[in-house]
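User: Sequence in, structure out. Go.
Assistant: Echoing your sequence, followed by the structure tokens.
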Amino acid sequence: MVTKKIFGLLAICIVILLPACGGGSGSGSGGGVGPSHYLFATVPTQSAIAALRMDSHSAAMTSVVGGPFQAGMSPTSIVVHPNGKFAYVANQTGNDISLFTIDHNTGALTEVMPRTPAGVTPVFLAMDSGGNFLFAANQSSGNVSVYSINSGSGALTEVAGSPFPANLSPVALALSPTGNFLYVANVDLASVTAFSVSSGVLQQLPQSPFPAGHAPMSVAVDPSGNFLYVANSRDNTISIFSIDSSGALTEVPSSPFDVGTNPVAVTVGTTVKVLYVANQGSSNISVFTVDATTGLPTALSGSPFTANGAPQVMAVDSTGNFLLVSTESNNTISAIKIDSTTGGLGGGVAASSMVGFPGTSIATTK
């Protein structure tokens, strides 16, 4: 049985848009002065948020002055509002959500009190592309809290009917590109719960939950909204589902597909149509092209690629040029160069930074 409190829980990066920052520099391959952006990572063991300035060309990283920044108890997931002013953090053992303002010039985070109550053990956050609603998966209480967001102040207001029942042990969320559907990985139920979304209100689809592999830990929707990908950590597989106009899921032929050992995270490329799967047990990353019509995956030449340690979480950087990987074996966040033509990772690690303790969620700005 997977533990009810997953302190090593993974999360997928939320990419938001900010004007580029000038003057970023740091040690690492290709370092130098030029456009830069910020990277934030939750560090549960320190109840803090690590903050790094990242060179947009070389990926060289330097710590933001004043960081790491104190959060609530055991922060596990972070997302950034599209307006670039606010960051939200789920505090797993605090059962609440922190709101931070982001200093655009320095990358410093300032928490706005009081914290917003959530369900029991909030472990994952997701936000719609317009920044209108925040969704929190509450693992121990088996539900999803939904909040409307004040774009001026960043304040959260829980919507009517929240929290919404989401079956056993919800640990990861994925929204469709339109924001009309929400998919929830139920790690102890071997399934995905699907909801329609209307003004933040969740309605579970009649056929839901949909069976997946054992211990689904991560879900992702492709940019077209046609397919859902699920990492089944106990089966060493990924499940792929087609999504119909009602949001219902149908598993594609031959699914599930074999990957490495203990896949814990899945995400999609932003500039090249590829699928990345982080295999914690085998310390590597499987990379696939995915047929746009059938959803069927084909492993890239050279896959799986080394992950510079046992990956805990990964995210495609906002530039689309790097895959960011947090590894629990060496407490490092690495930027792996993405081949602009194939989406492969043969270029290896472009830069990395020690954060002292494993990071469980990554968010970047542009």
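User: And one key feature?
Assistant: The first strand starts at residue 21 and ends at 24.
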